[in-house]
Amino acid sequence: MTSRRVLPALLLLFIGSGCAALIYEIVWFQLLQLVVGSSAISLGVLLGTFMGGMCLGSLALSFFVPARQHPLRVYACLELGIGLIGLLALVGMPLISNIYTSWAGSGVAGLVFRGVIAGICLLPPTLLMGATLPAISRWVETTPEGVSWLGFFYGGNIAGAVLGSVLAGFYLLRVFDVSIATYVAVAINIAVALGGFALARFTTHKPVDSMDMDPGVRRASGAVSVYIVIALSGFTALAAEVVWTRLLSLLFGATTYTFSLILAVFLFGLGIGSTVGSVMSSRVARPRAALGWCQVGLCVCMAWTAYVVGRSLPYWPINPSAVANPWINFQVDVVRALYAVLPAAILWGASFPLALASVAERGQDPAKLVGGVYAANTVGAIIGSLGASLLLVAWIGSLHTQQVLMVVAAVAGSILLLAPATDDAQKSWWPTAAACAAIIVVALLVRNVPGIPNVMVAYGRYANMRVNDSAQYIYVGEGMTASVAVSKLSDGVLNYHNAGKVQASSEPQDMRLQRMLGHMTTLIPPNAKRVVVIGCGAGVTAGAVSVDPVVTNQTIAEIEPLVPKVVSEYFGEHNFNVVRNPKVHVRIDDARHYVMTSKEKFDAITSDPLDPWVKGAAMLYTREFFDAARQHLNPGGVVTLFVQLYESNTAAVKSEIGTFFEAFPNGIIWGNTNNGQGYDLVLLGQAGDGPIKIDVDAIQARLNRPEYAPVVKSMRDIGFNSAVDMFSSYAGRATDLKEWLKDASINRDRNLRLQYLAGLGLNLYESGPIYSEILRYRKFPDDLFIGSPATISALRAGVQRGLDFRE
């Protein structure tokens, strides 16, 4: 049946399959998160659907495709089918998005609908993807040599996945968009399919009735235990990947590049392990024992990773901002990821071919052999990834989650190593004694797994530089999507940490920005009764909104359930106890998903999300989202947006401002300075295409009313003693900045350009020069402000004082 000369060529084809599959996975997840949201629940639905389709496809092939069909021709047809569906998904996604946003709801019904949408989009292609390895497996026999080649195919597929992860994350989506990335993946599918058809034409395949194959289901003795162990191996692998990706993203910066890099390193280890395991599977006499020892070894490797991540890497003497070239930092991150993750990934990779060898018997249908092992491994992986991301980390934390995984791996090893011997050659006492000793060592390792240092949760990639700080960590916790900390400095300043950095604080410059953002949101529109606040953070912006007496209904859309609980306890004095305010409702959801699917209209929307370099945050800065926000405004309503200048670069800032101004041609920039230098910005746009008019005297008259006393006090606390003071922060508007923004990269759903631009600037501190560039184009807007001559004169002088800061 097997032509050995064809096997290396098939290996190359499988590398292509893996490359295309990872490109599709990254593209489809990016597109579908824009539709169903990027909350932990939504990501769980997407991941479960994707991997579930792979599992079903691996099982289904042997039942629906007769063994007499030429394996190479079947494989080629599967690849063509994947490419065709990839093109259809690209074309049909806008239609799917429109249907979803029109019909989406909340609660159980909304969750079911997300699952339906994910199933429609992901199940057809993933069923075909899952079937490719079982299809090609029929080209080999279930001999030791044939099973070894199955492991090589699996390893080749993973090698292609490494290439696809790097290609998509670092080039295709950074330089182009999802369309180009999809076309590249389709081209790879077509090339692989043509290769498969060509090989099928010049090779022969003996049909099943001419083969020495038992058409019934043959199962090796003790196969059930192997299926259980490989499922547990999949469970520990994906759960550990979830935990380690989360922890390493704190150390490297949670950019899209970091996620691609960690995934590539993990897959790289799986590929090495699969290759080694394939060689071993044809040479070791007891593959089941080798599989068992792999699981025991994983306990040691997981302990190693826990030590490296918790006790070593945070203290490496690395300053990410020491170099301006981000690619240098990426090289360092690759080394650190390999140092931490590679040993365990190699053993997980070796487990699959060893499991194949453990259950293989001559005469089996190779497709059923591969499909069964692959399905068991994938089921375990689904449970592990969902269990870790939705339950374990938020429930018991990263430390105890890693301990649980080590125990599970030890149990998996014990199932095979302590099982009764079935032949005389295996009745020696020493393997059992060695296994018992190893399990005792594992128990000691489990007890000594180090926790995650508070400074790493708080300061992430700068942890080693903050070790000797006098900060007191009064809270550190892990939620479903983020790790959160609250620290208190010796001078009493409170810091709110998320994504491994300070996201908000009671520092004067931060308080000014947060309250300025909130007060402009409610004071500029004529009647801001219903307001949406995107991102809770420390709650200061939401608190500034809540004290406005006009506001009667306020919604805070926050993706991490832990955040409102934490800030209500530690920042209540600074945020006016906003979370406990009866007119304030906290909605735990991806803010984009909430706004896009809402049937309501609002008077104002203010957005203070995580940094745009954080993976997923750029979805809140796209032209399509700004358009949707404008469409959800009542006449005269406004949208305000926080834009940071620190930890960014000119290209990213231009992208944020240019995209906002495309949606709001009447947009305005307000500046927040620190020590006379640019620090961050507030962008403001109003519903309608006409010019914005701000009646400064009317706003001051409102502030003079008794019911506005809390607003006035809040403004005075940040240095604004009047409406004139607040509007003196004027820094420019869309009509003035056309020249500066002519080369801005517009951030759209199809490219999410901002997250790639911002990800290259997170270690830069260029806020002063960027703000100075903006101020070069500023002119006093005679047609913007309305007021008495004295008011306009005072405002003109205030704006000029702001201009003088840069000189």
Account of the 3D structure:
This protein has 807 residues and is an alpha/beta fold. The chain has four domains: 7-207, Growth Hormone, Chain: A (Up-down Bundle); 221-451, Growth Hormone, Chain: A (Up-down Bundle); 454-498, no CATH class; 503-767, Rossmann fold. The chain has helices at 7-36, 40-64, 71-103, 107-137, 144-175, 178-201, 223-252, 256-281, 287-312, 326-359, 366-417, 430-447, 454-459, 508-523, 540-546, 562-570, 591-597, 623-631, 650-663, 696-703, 709-717, 723-727, 753-759, 767-775, 789-804, and strands spanning 472-478, 483-488, 494-498, 501-505, 530-534, 553-558, 584-588, 602-607, 633-644, 668-674, 677-686, 694-695, 730-733, 785-786. The protein has an eight-stranded mixed sheet with strand order 7-6-5-8-9-11-10-13, sandwiched between helices. Strands 1-2-3-4 form a four-stranded antiparallel sheet. Helix 7 packs parallel to helix 9 (287-312), helix 14 (508-523) runs antiparallel to helix 21 and helix 18 (623-631) packs parallel to helix 19 (650-663). The longest helix is centred in the middle third of the chain and has 52 residues, at 366-417.
